[in-house]
Amino acid sequence: MLKVTKGCSVRISYELKFSGGEVLESSQQTGPLDYTHGEAKLIPQFQQRIEGMAVGEEKQGVIPAQEVFGDESAFPTETMKRSSFPADAKLEVGALFSAKRSGGQAVQLKIISVTTEEVTVRMIPELAGKDLEFSVKVLVIDDPHAKKREGVAPPPPPAAALNVEVDPEPEGK
Predict the structure, then answer these.
(1) Backbone angles phi, psi at 30, to 5 degrees
(2) How confident is the model at residue 168 (pLDDT cuts 50, 70, 90)?
(3) How many CB atoms lie within 10 A of CB 143?
(4) Contact present, 101 and 60 (Cβ < 8 Å)
(5) Nearest by Cα to 13 from 53, 68, 40
(6) Second label for 53, Cα 20 to 30 Å away, from 15, 80, 127, 169?
(7) How confident is the model at residue 125 (pLDDT cuts 50, 70, 90)?
């Protein structure tokens, strides 16, 4: 029986969501995911939990926010002009402000120092404080070193996807 190890091509069905319900990624929306285990396509902490699983195996769990995002001190800092903040803003160490980065990603600005001219902030991803809940099922493992492949048969597509009408009352009843 093959197990997920580094270098294997793997197909999974999965869901990643933040504690509280907001879905980050789901194969329900995008279809099963194919990736090479050990490469940087998945969140490393999620990949660690898939390591060693076999075809057909399912797993659910929680990845703590601290494990996913690390210590807050690892996030970048930026020094900004005090005038970049609203005039009536209470600028003190520890205060949080919401902002958007140039690429449009939401970020929290946490003040780490204030002078009469400048404010130094730590840029914390908006989702940094949220735990990740996951569910995963391994569908296919292809081990190129062992030249072996194992997989589960996919479920049949729903009738609507095949443009087939379903008779609500089959004949003979």
Answers:
(1) -115, -10
(2) low
(3) 18
(4) no
(5) 53
(6) 127
(7) confident
CA gap 3, 21 in Å, rounded: 30
Q: Does domain 9-68+129-152 have CATH number 3.10.50.40?
A: yes
Q: Average pLDDT in the 144-157 region? A: 75
Instruction: Give the whole-angstrom CA distance, residue 74 versus residue 76.
Output: 7
Q: How remote is the C-alpha of 165 from its chain's centroid?
A: 37
Paired sense of beta strands 118-125 and 77-81, if any:
antiparallel
Tell me: pLDDT of 173 over 60.
no
Please give, one letter per residue, the 3-state secondary structure of the chain. CCECCCCCEEEEEEEEEECCCCEEEEHHHHCCEEEECCCCCCCHHHHHHHCCCECCCEEEEEECHHHHHCCHHHCCEEEEEHHHCCCCCCCCCCCEEEEECCCCCEEEEEEEEECCCEEEEEEEECCCCCCEEEEEEEEEEEECCCCEEEECCCCCCCHHHHCCCCCCCCCCC
Q: Does 173 or 153 have the greater pLDDT score?
A: 153
What residues have CB less than 8 Å from 105, skipping those under 6 apart?
125, 126
* pLDDT averaged over every residue in the chain: 86
**In the chain, domain spans:** 9-68+129-152, 76-125
Chain length of the chain: 173
